[in-house]
Amino acid sequence: MSVPQNTSTPVVSKSWKLELLGHGQLTCDDVVVRLERKTAALFAFLALEGATSRTKLAGLLWSDSTEDAARSSLRQRLYRLRAAVGFDLIVSDEPLRLEPSLTIDAVRFESLIFTSEHAKALELEGELLAGNDYDDCPDLNDWVLAARERLESGRREALSSEANRLETAGDYQKALGRAQQLLARDPISEDTHRRVMR
After folding, report:
1. Residue 187: exposure state from Cβ atoms within 10 A (0-12, 13-18, ≥19)
2. What's the pTM value of the predicted model, to 2 decimals?
3. What is the CA radius of gyration of the chain?
4. Of 11, 44, 85, 162, which residue is least crowded by CB atoms under 10 Å?
5. What are the start-end ranges of the E strands in 45-89?
């Protein structure tokens, strides 16, 4: 995790954004804090699963360590994060939870899918924690893969819905574009092949 250039004045009153669709980073105005892979996973888990005990998080992130060592590693991670941004974006109560003012792209994406705002959802691009590998943390790796598939399923749903909407509206060129995007993500779908040919 890289510390922002100017850390003399904490940016408490400003709005931090957590970007999980991609490698994982925090942004606030011109300040960017790129997250180390385990810190990114910690944020992702809390964002998508909600408040979680320290013991569970430590076990997920440092499964090859003793419980005491894992909890110590988690404490150090939280301390370094606070030093990087100037205040607690992860509220250190038990269980741990994210600061409510934090804006999170993956959470917004799921919310837009839930409310059927598919065009807006498709503006949020990127795979969850893209480029991060968690093979050394088996349980965490399983969770990341399942969460990626959950978001990808939502993206396929949004593409299908948008292709239908555009076709019904007579905007065949854009409908074809969305159908082709869907086909690239789900190449064995017969329905999508038929839609592209139509």
Report:
1. exposed
2. 0.86
3. 19
4. 11
5. none
CA 84/CA 10 separation, integer angstroms: 9
| Average of per-residue pLDDT across 150-160 | 96
- Give pLDDT tens digits for 54-108: 999 999 999 999 999 999 999 999 999 998 888 889 998 899 999 999 999 999 9
CB 28 within 8 A of CB 17: yes
Cα torsion at 86, 87, 92, 95 (round to 10°)?
-120
- Residues 153 and 111 sit within 8 Å (Cβ to Cβ): no
Q: Is residue 83 helix, strand or coil? A: helix
**Could you give the CA distance from residue 182 to residue 160 in angstroms, rounded to a whole number?**
7
Give 83: exposed, middle or buried? Use CB within 10 Å, 0-12, 13-18, 19+.
exposed
**Residue 157 Cα to chain centre, angstroms:** 18
